[in-house]
Fold this sequence. Notes:
Elements: E1 8-11, H1 15-28, E2 34-37, H2 40-48, E3 60-64, H3 72-80, H4 84-87, E4 91-96, H5 101-109, E5 113-118, H6 123-134
Parallel strand pairs: 1-2, 1-3, 3-4, 4-5
Amino acid sequence: MKKKLNSILLVDDDEDCNFFHKRLINRMDITEEIHVALDGEEALDYLKSSIDGKHPQPAIIFLDINMPKIDGWEFLDEYEKLEDIQKAQVVLVMLTTSLNPDDLERAKSNPLVYDYLNKYLDADRIQKIIEKHFSNHL
């Protein structure tokens, strides 16, 4: 039996995108759980939540930039303020349709962002992220 990531968090207000990514990730059978947040505020609430004193601690967060309430950049600012136990094991990957070169530079300069990719993900790109960041764990 292959070991799986504990969970993946999809943060995107595009429900079609979430549906596609959730289906793809389920087909790849790489995680025990996929949680979807429709904006940055919902994602932060999820990360701050706890069950039996434990926070969710997803292995990967796929984060959209343009969302209502709290966008991807604002999410990163608030994410930095979380306690370490609320953000452990996380690889943040920004997903976007933005062609703005400033967004790419901003993502590259942020130490929290491991990757910056255009939507939509495919199995090959997800596999590369897992091999790059989790090869010692799986």
